[in-house]
């Protein structure tokens, strides 16, 4: 017998959506203005590095549109076709944004770099235009980065994580994508400025080409980093291990629960976690008492852990060979044997095993 507990958590998907939207809008406006300015500078000066930076800003602008789409789509409520909601749509569009960085930014920058290295050297026209545009772009990109850093650092503090750990493990790709994009943008501006200066001093377009290739490599690395993060989230990753451990202990503390036989968590979206647990309940409970217990346990679980959106509980005997075998296949024999004991061992005041 199994009991499904909880329709949907009262918490809306991605409670940080408003702040994430503001962060993305700031980045969108900055990148759009910068792309136009860089494009004009590239035409006026004939600089390959400025052309590469134009492609960089165009890619970033398109990416912000993808991220806004991600925020809007992932906030849609669950329906018949998507009974668990649209939370993972945020990860899909963030993955598309990573692909856009690679295709629009990295490949075009690489093309400009190779073109500059293989073609005859040319004079750099009006380099002052490039310097002015790069300086203005640095200020705008820096402002966008500060906005993204403020949000991500705040979220990291809320989750009691270090900044780097938060960037590596967060389930919200929007603000972190902006942070990586803008960090790469500032580095790209410095590379473009260095390439332009060396071209102006030496008269050789080789430095312009090298700067473009460095920008291409930078964008490719950012694209791969973001793609890996979103692919991980799209492939059914478990919830934050700290949440999993807390849920395990909470379930083990329930008076009707003899042991937690199995616990599965899946990240459904930003701030949305699916919890599936197999519980060995007290044998003296009647059928009606089991039903009431599972409903109450599911409700208290969602109240204590706001990220828990859906809960599925299944009463099973602790010694069920089939269930234990499946748990061992998933976690390994040693960890599977510890799962049942961990809930009891971690209870306050319990004796160490």
Description of the structure:
The protein is built from 11 helices and 4 strands. It has a 4-stranded mixed sheet, with helices on both faces. The two termini are 32 Å apart. Helix content is 68%, strand content 10%. It folds into 2 domains: 17-234, Alpha-lytic protease prodomain-like, CATH 1.20.1510.10; 239-345, Cation efflux protein, cytoplasmic domain (Alpha-Beta Plaits, 2-Layer Sandwich), CATH 3.30.70.1350. Helix 4 runs antiparallel to helix 6 (173-202). The chain has 353 residues and is of the alpha+beta class. Pfam families: Cation_efflux (PF01545). InterPro entries: Cation_efflux, Cation_efflux_CTD_sf, Cation_efflux_TM, Cation_efflux_TMD_sf, SLC30A9. It is a multi-pass membrane protein. GO terms for molecular function: monoatomic cation transmembrane transporter activity. This is Cation diffusion facilitator family transporter.
Question: Helical content, roughly?
Answer: 55-70%
Strand order of the largest sheet: 1-4-3-2
Uncertain regions: pLDDT < 50 for 5+ in a row? 1-16, 346-353
Distance between the termini: 32 Å
Rg from alpha-carbon coordinates: 26 Å
Q: Given this structure, which CATH class of the largest domain is correct?
A: Mainly Alpha
Instruction: Let me know the number of strands.
Output: 4
> What's the number of helices?
11
Query: Number of domains in the coordinates?
Result: 2
CATH superfamily of the largest domain: Cation efflux protein transmembrane domain
Largest sheet: 4 strands, mixed
- Write down the CATH topology of the largest domain: Alpha-lytic protease prodomain-like
**Mean pLDDT over all positions:** 83
Strand fraction: 5-15%
Silhouette: elongated
Q: Which architecture of the largest domain does the CATH hierarchy give at level 2?
A: Up-down Bundle
| Helix-strand topology string | EHHHHHHHHEEHEHH
* Secondary-structure class: alpha+beta
Transmembrane segments: 91-111, 131-149, 205-224
Pfam families: Cation_efflux
GO cellular component, one term: membrane
GO molecular function, one term: monoatomic cation transmembrane transporter activity
